[in-house]
Batch of 3 targets.
Target 1
Amino acid sequence: MGHFFRAETDGYVFKAMSPIHIITLITLVFGIIAIIYLYKNNRNLLKPISKFLFIALIIEQISLYAWYFFVLGFDPVQALPLYSCRIAMLSIIFGKLLKSDSLLLFGGYFGFPGGVIALAYPYLDAYSFPHLTNFTFFLGHLLLTWLCTIILLEKKEQKKQLKGMLIWVHVFFIITYFVDINYGANYAYLLWSPIMTSTFAKIPHFLYIALIYFVYVVILLLTHLGFKKLRSLRDTNREAFNNIF
């Protein structure tokens, strides 16, 4: 049991496109398609599914942060919720508890693309399997992406909320960059990229930051347009939707 919760890293690097990675990606896509199908054909089932995913996410988050606090002793380089997915998870949890659509939508827009990208290009802590962080990474991002899919299908954002989220992107970047440069962290990968590291290292840092910011905004807008289209499909006849799948 102590091995599962150990604090000392061992230099482990997760291998992309390994069998476990491929299985995870298949599970992710299957879950998204299943949720969209239920949204179009049997929305009543989404409520208990959403409740189950939400409870599982809370358990996953409590487990992870308990480990950060009691095992690592709260290291600000690793434990702060300044990755987009971590912010999204907490936004969804508090959005549900406080019945705030704005928090839910913020979590949805940050969490859906964040979860997909994180699982497509996994960057795990350097702990060999089995370790708590291995499981919280994959399980947490799966739960997040599926919950975000439900939220963005069910909740129709207003223009004011979309503008608010774009403003929060600015705030998120400023706070995160300040923390990164003061603690030597790399939240939101604002100091260096975990993929194509040597290539991005050749770019002047201010251009790298501008590129990351641009990608965030574009992904947010594409997510908005994609789910707006999916919601509109519900108004078409069921046969037309089934032909998509």
Target 2
Amino acid sequence: MAEATVVALILAITIAIGIITSVPIAVSIGVASLLAGVAVLGPSDAGEVLAGRTFTAMNSFTLLAIPLFVLAGVLMANGGIAGRLIDAAKVVVGRAPSSLGATTIAANGMFGAVSGAAVAAAAAVGSVTVPRMKEEGYNPRLAAAVNVVSAPAGMLIPPSNTFIVYSLVGSTSVAALFMAGVVPGIIWVVACIITLMIVNRGYKGIRAELTFKKALRVLWRAVPSLAMVVVVVGGILAGFFTATESAAIAVAYCLVLALAYGNVGVSDLPRILLDAGRTTSVVMILVGVSGALAWILSYARIPQLVSDAMLGISENQYIIMLLILLMMLLVGTFMDPTPAILIFVPIFLPIISDFGIHPVQFGAIVVMAMAIGSITPPVGNVLFIGARIASEPVEQVARKALPFYGALILALVAVAFIPALSMWLPTVAGLVAP
């Protein structure tokens, strides 16, 4: 049996068994990589090579940004930021139909932007707005679905840990990727609001009534929180600091803000550091084992075989892109974004490069597909968190989210086939050659 076939079978069967039996995905990937390595290299060489590849994958200066952005996100989540952003979102969209649902969507976009974490956004915003939506007469499962589908917008709006992970395998500028995610992130929020207005048409509810003076005061209270995005992204674009250095500045900024708001005290810092450490350890273990798996795939020449197989189906750029979109959406339903990007981007990147698709645009496409995957059964972690916060069955929340899935997939197709949606800002900022 050919070496590539042996490796593919071992990896597919082992990871599938791990998913079915609810083994943590990092363990499944690690065991699968080790077994495949033993099959093609032998026990001694496999252990030595894969241990080295695991360490090399994690030993990156760029990756230092991830634990720092995670810590900044945890500080934001504990620092009373969510309430201010929800109030600001209410001012912006409070007079729209289904205003509280639209407020939830806008607040998730804002909170996701400052925290970069979809799960944190779903938890922080949903715990405040979902009970309010239920009180105002929203279908409880629709209320949960609105929170779930809007939370991943922060994976696209900078700063974003997912883009940092992509930059490692895409050999692209983090700053360019950050800019590439802005317009798709806004499209995500707008698509969710429009879909809500359609599925919830006829709902009267309670619209926010604010005087101009009070609205300005509410927006002013949210400015320090939103300014973090300007400081971080603006500093990178201006060349004042790198993405990693900007993450350290974000931590300092969020710490000062949380202490100033009075929601976090010095006694809370050990707990916050522990929470950030737990999240970081999960991400870094995934990065390490995914690096080992990517090496095994490359050693067995599986990326080249996949490329040849896809080009054998069609050499039409649009057909190939649709196939890649379908595969990334499928992968996103059962695998976390970090390992999915580290494993599959090296497979697809040479294919899209042959068709002249820029790696920065492909980064926006991949992250958007992974964001959709994070809210899709059977593994979507944001879906499970959102359903748990609302105390609703996951299956029923997913059913209410179906129209939103359709809208978001259409948005993904638009980003994939209209390069300007992701490339305009990086080009205008001088981060990508025209």
Target 3
Amino acid sequence: MLIVAALLTPPLLLCAVLALGRYEDHMLARSAPARHARPRRHLRLVSGSGAPSPSPAADSAPRAGLPTTGSGHAA
């Protein structure tokens, strides 16, 4: 039984390596983009509406009820 296993192992490993090589080539081949991933996108991460962004001065202005000095942690 050990001789059968010793004789069958190298060809089986060779077949496995060749099959994995073909699978790798198949996975790396460029294909047409999927239907849902074609150039026209319906959803966008950042809208292109052209709305003005808030000014930097508005971000740095103190807000009512918040401390203006210190680390911001309650003592």
